[in-house]
Amino acid sequence: MSGSAVRPPLFEPAAVRATPPMGWNSWDSGIALTEQSVRETIDAMVSNGMRDAGYRYVDLDAGWAAPQRDSSGDLAADPIRFPHGIAAVAGYAHEHGMYLGLYASPFDEICGQSPATASRGHELQDARRFAQWGVDLLKYDWCRTDANHDEQVRDFARMRDALRSTGRGIVYMINPNSSADARAGVDYDWSGVANSARSTDDLIPMWRNTFPEPDIGGFDTTSVRGVADEAQAALQARPSRPGYWPDPDMLVSGLSMSQFLGAHLDGLPGTAVRRSALTAAETAYLARRLGISPDTLAMLRDTRTLSPAEEQAHLSLWAMLSAPFIAGNDVRTMSEPTRELLTDAGVIAIDQDPRVAPAAPLRRDHRILTKPLADGSVAVALVNPGDQPLTLATTAAETGLAQAYSYTVHDIWTTTTTVTDGRIVAPDIPAHGVALLRITPTG
Q1: Is 108 exposed, middle or buried (0-12, 13-18, 19+ CB in 10 A)?
Q2: Side-chain-side CA neighbours of residue 366 (13 Å)
Q3: pLDDT for 297-333, tens place per residue?
Q4: 136, 202, 249, 344: which is the annotated catalytic residue?
Q5: Are 266 and 349 spatial neighbours (Cβ–Cβ below 8 Å)?
Q6: Would you call 202 a catalytic residue per the annotation?
Q7: Which of 92, 119, 389, 411 is most buried, by the most CB atoms less than 10 A from its CB?
Q8: Backbone dihedral region of 113: left (phi > 0), alpha (psi from -120 to 50 degrees) or beta?
């Protein structure tokens, strides 16, 4: 692995939290990013219980900025989308007990925002503008296919220093992986540069990447992973600790493939792929426009969202990784099952545990992950990556717990609690599912 074996001093801007942020990001759902839609999202997160469950950040991804800087060289909000500016949106978030996040890039070459808004050479100017607006989080995305490691470290550190100079506690999340170097977020310890670094490729709302073609309408399908493969890759990243959280990408719970594609495919007619049925002429037209076969288009249109078992596994794995919980679905219209999943207190408690320990697979069986918790208990995820139900077992000793007379085993998703002498069995875990347990010594 590249980088020093000795961890660098942690980047600690004023007032930044120790546990991973929870919130919402506008990118994956493909909603029209406007002042009105952001206010509606804030209102929804208050009324549906997300805010009180811990989801406090509302992050505006690419698309919020005017295509050109103003006459002073400052960034400005798109005047059509945000007629009252970003400070007004930040104020609305703060009035509702929430925080505002913004997106920026050193280059903005490939990620949906004008290169004229790129921050390289404007780091101090842009950081001051963010602080003046009342921004609480910055997602800083490389957004360039070329990547030299030393150049990445230098550019990301420049923005780090600029944010630090403002004196405002802005959470700093970077994405070194939007480049040709897929290892950029895995092999290097970014904790001295940022509070969080993307550790993997982009996540899609599938259990595994089953795209039959490598390119769909300019969308490189080889650069994305499904939930199972994303989690496996994230386990290879430098570990989490208080104030630093490797980021395996935002949550895709409650997000359909058609919504995801609508947000990612250049020039895709917004309603066409979302319709349950396309005429033969529409199918042929859209397939030609995307440069794919009609059969592939049909697969994309008909791909279901994650199953309930896969949804639980998704959140369980992100909680075990101490990863940011950033929802990517349209929270204004999400279903009640999705709301209940995202706001489940048990899985959130594991993700937000103040020890911020990384998950570790058992040497004997990598399908079983353990995570020590601050109160002396341990979280255990027994994951079934296969297509048939599976029973998995471990012991309290194997999970790292000290010897005790008995142990309480609380199942997060079934909400059942049992007592054991140390043997832990998870029977009939559904395909692509998980048993997420919190085990506590009791005697």
Answers
A1: buried
A2: 7
A3: 776 666 667 999 999 999 999 999 999 999 999 999 9
A4: 202
A5: no
A6: yes
A7: 119
A8: beta
Q: Please count the other Cβ atoms lying within 10 Å of the Cβ belonging to residue 95.
A: 9
Question: What is each CA distance from 194 to 86, 110, 138, 190, in whole angstroms?
Answer: 23, 22, 10, 6
Nearest Cα to Cα of residue 265 among 200, 314, 213: 213
CB 199 within 8 A of CB 231: no
Question: What is the spatial distance between Cα 82 and Cα 65, in angstroms, rounded to a whole number?
Answer: 9
Report how far apart, in Å, the C-alpha atoms of 338 and of each of 57, 212, 263, 335 are: 18, 28, 20, 5
Stated pTM of the model: 0.91
Question: What is the pLDDT, as a whole number, of residue 147?
Answer: 75
Q: Are strands 196-198 and 245-247 parallel, antiparallel or unpaired?
A: parallel
pLDDT classification of 187: cutoffs 50, 70, 90: confident
Q: Is 313 exposed, middle or buried (0-12, 13-18, 19+ CB in 10 A)?
A: buried
| Average pLDDT of every residue of the chain | 88
Cα–Cα distance, 365 to 374 (Å, whole number) = 24
Q: How far is CA 128 from the centre of its chain?
A: 26
Q: Please write the tens of the pLDDT for every residue from 155-167.
A: 999 999 999 999 9
Residue recorded with tokens 């998995």: 392
The C-alpha atoms of residue 366 and residue 66 are separated, in whole angstroms, by: 47
Helix, coil or strand: residue 411: strand
Domains of the chain: 22-199+236-255+305-351 (3.20.20.70), 360-441 (2.60.40.1180)
